[in-house]
Every structure is written in C-alpha cells, then in structure tokens.
C-alpha cells in the first residue's frame, strides 16, 4: 500500500461499478442513475463499459465526475470517480492490447478531474502509458483486478504503486454467467500472504446484503457492486452493514 498521501476514505468502502452499456444512456438518464446511487452513500464510483468506444466512455466519465462534484457541494461528502481502462477490442481481435490502451487513455482534462484509474488484470503492466500526460499517479487512486494470489503478487511489480486490489469474482453473478467464482477464500488467501497483507482488498462479484459480511470478515477493505446499488433498499442495507463494520474496524486510506 502506498503511504504518504491520504485519500480521505474511511474503510470499509462502498463502490458502485457502472453497468454494461452505461454509455448508451443519454446524459439526463445517466445523471438520474448516478444521483440515485450517490444517495446510497457510495464512496467510489468506477466508470466501466468495455464495449463502448473510447470517446463515449470519456464523455460518460466526465458526466459522472460533474454529477459527483455537484453532490459533494450539496452534501459535503467526497465521492471518488475512478475510470476503468477496460475495453474488449483486443479480445475481439480488432486491435493489439497496447493500441487499445493508448486509445483508452483519458484526455488530460478528464484525467485531471478523475479520482483514480482502474486497470483490468491484463493491462496493469502497461499502466505507465496512462500517466504519460504529466499527471502524478501519487495523487490518484490506482488499482487493478486480480483473480489469484499469483496475479496479486504480479500486480505489485508494476511501475506504479497500487492503492488497492479488486478481488474476485466472490459469488455467482450475471456479469460473468457460467463462471465458477473464486469465492471469499481468495480474499483470505491474499490477506494471509506476507507480501500482500497491507494492501486494501475490494471484493467484487455477486455481492449483496445477504453475503457482504462474508467478504468483509474474510479481510476485505470494501465491497464493489453493480446491480445491488441500483436498488435503493438493497443499497441502503449495504451502506448500513458497512457502517456497522466501520465502528468495529476503523481504518482509512
């Protein structure tokens, strides 16, 4: 875990990941969705739509940033907007991975405004391309997805220090139909590794109010969800659960 810079996030954190095809929403509809989600008390919004063209996700991310700032001015609580670099163009064979990454890099005004950048597992080794625009990574949340202890260890060798690892799939999920989840045991295994036990872990995949406690008890510093946070009642229950954990396990980064 990087030290020396405080992001002001009390753990465990609650993160919303935007659903697939979010970029097909018009600006007004996107703003309504974001407003509904921030009411639930999320700490982080991760803007992801791997099927969208880069220009579309750049525009969507800026809309989310502006809406988050509007909320902060009203309520005073900081919401960190993270941009997910994922794109399926290399997986479809349309482009090389490196070309996809270079095309996906946010323009400077967006990168300045963002709270951080998230890398899919296969892209983390190229993370330096995002920060070529003289933006200091030390002032941005930087993380990556991992699905094994080995990939978590490999992620630590990237050229930029990481602030968190997004771990999972925790439970069966509509986002990865048919996939056998790694489960909360992966959180526990990473947390128990001496080289990895200080970095915050964010559990993701099929997390609901009925199973979120399992993820936190395994050692996660937060949870990420797509659909659960689109349901106001479920989102409120998740926020309450995390608040209860905060009173028992106070930490921040």
Strand content: 15-25%
CATH class of the domain at 11-141 and 207-242: Alpha Beta
Instruction: Classify the secondary structure makeup into a structural class.
Output: alpha/beta
Structure summary, number of beta strands: 10
pLDDT below 50 for ≥5 consecutive residues: which ranges? 1-6
Which radius of gyration do the C-alpha atoms yield?
17 Å
- The DSSP helix count reads 8
Kindly state the percentage of residues in helix: 25-40%
Sheet with the most strands, sense and barrel status: 8 strands, parallel, barrel
Strand order of the largest sheet: 2-3-4-5-6-7-8-9
* Average residue pLDDT: 90
SSE succession: EEHEHEHHEEHEHEHEHE
Pathway: Cofactor biosynthesis; thiamine diphosphate biosynthesis
Domain Thiamine phosphate synthase/TenI: 16-228
InterPro entries: Aldolase_TIM, ThiamineP_synth_sf, ThiamineP_synth_TenI
Keywords: Thiamine biosynthesis
Compact summary:
With 253 residues, this protein is an alpha/beta fold. It is built from eight helices and ten strands. Helices cover 34% and strands 16% of the residues.
Record the SSE blueprint:
Layout lengths: L9 E2 L1 E5 L9 H12 L5 E4 L6 H22 L4 E5 L12 H8 L3 H6 L2 E4 L21 E6 L2 H7 L8 E4 L16 H8 L9 E4 L7 H6 L4 E4 L6 H17 L2 E2 L1
Parallel strand pairs: 2-3, 2-9, 3-4, 4-5, 5-6, 6-7, 7-8, 8-9
Antiparallel strand pairs: 1-10
Helix pairs in contact: 1-2
Pathway: Cofactor biosynthesis; thiamine diphosphate biosynthesis
Keywords: Thiamine biosynthesis
Organism: Timspurckia oligopyrenoides
